[in-house]
């Protein structure tokens, strides 16, 4: 993936930031990790709403990590840690993460070849933090792309979150001046219960 993709605020990030804003009263004191953060809009909003945020992007994309740091500086959040975490790879940074409550990911389900690596990382984090949830927004790019089988494989479940339920169904939020159709969806992923749900 071209690291340039991490230099833009994509529509999915705006929608996820809107969800965080709609739930801002529940964020103070929560421990939040944003994966694939890039410009870090959702993570910055979480931090500004009182969450203990950590931003991360691939350790192989130094420009994206620098973008995370720049976003923190511009938003007067110099204390927010920025980590290099590569999906699907166990690293000392991943293994030593403090407990977390919420994982954020906007438009991380971009390239199907990365889907399993993403969900492997999410499964690892949720196993360490069984009460945690993964809040993610994604752009519908192909009817052939689905994470359903991978969710089942990794014993994860998802709940669809309608955009209208948090005021993100407005044209100015979920659209973009970039070319193409921009249908944004949101889901919350968590560990499936032992009863098979």
Automatic annotation (TrEMBL):
Catalytic activity: L-arginyl-[protein] + 2 S-adenosyl-L-methionine = N(omega),N(omega)-dimethyl-L-arginyl-[protein] + 2 S-adenosyl-L-homocysteine + 2 H(+)
GO MF terms, alphabetically ordered: protein-arginine omega-N asymmetric methyltransferase activity
Swiss-Prot/TrEMBL keywords: Chromatin regulator, Cytoplasm, Developmental protein, Methyltransferase, Nucleus, S-adenosyl-L-methionine, Transferase
Cellular component terms per the entry's GO annotation: cytoplasm; nucleus
Record's keyword annotation contains Lipid metabolism: no
Complex formation: Interacts with HSPA5, HSP90B1, TUBULIN, UGGT1 and UGGT2. Interacts with TET3. Interacts with STPG4.
Function: Histone methyltransferase that dimethylates histone H3 at 'Arg-17', forming asymmetric dimethylarginine (H3R17me2a), leading to activate transcription via chromatin remodeling. Maternal factor involved in epigenetic chromatin reprogramming of the paternal genome in the zygote: mediates H3R17me2a, promoting histone H3.3 incorporation in the male pronucleus, leading to TET3 recruitment and subsequent DNA demethylation.
Designated name of the protein: Histone-arginine methyltransferase METTL23
Species, as recorded: Daphoenositta chrysoptera
Lineage start: Eukaryota, Metazoa, Chordata, Craniata, Vertebrata
Name of the gene: Mettl23
């Amino acid at each position: 993936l071209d690291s340039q993709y991490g230099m833009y605020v994509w529509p999915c990030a705006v929608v996820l930031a809107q969800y965080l804003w709609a739930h801002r009263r529940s964020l103070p004191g929560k421990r939040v990790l944003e994966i694939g953060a890039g410009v870090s809009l959702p993570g910055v909003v979480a931090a500004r709403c009182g969450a203990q945020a950590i931003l991360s992007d691939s350790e192989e994309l130094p420009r994206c990590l620098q973008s995370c740091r720049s976003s923190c500086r511009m938003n007067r959040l110099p204390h927010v840690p920025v980590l290099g975490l590569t999906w699907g790879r166990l690293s000392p940074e991943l293994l030593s993460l403090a407990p977390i409550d919420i994982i954020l990911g906007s438009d991380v389900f971009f390239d199907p070849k990365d889907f399993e690596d993403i969900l492997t990382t999410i499964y690892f984090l949720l196993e360490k933090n069984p009460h945690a949830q993964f809040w993610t927004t994604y752009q519908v790019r192909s009817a052939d792309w689905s994470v359903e089988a991978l969710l089942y494989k990794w014993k994860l479940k998802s709940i669809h979150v309608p955009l209208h339920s948090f005021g993100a169904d407005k044209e100015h939020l979920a659209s973009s001046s970039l070319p193409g159709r921009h249908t944004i969806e949101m889901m919350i992923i968590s560990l499936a219960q032992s009863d098979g749900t």
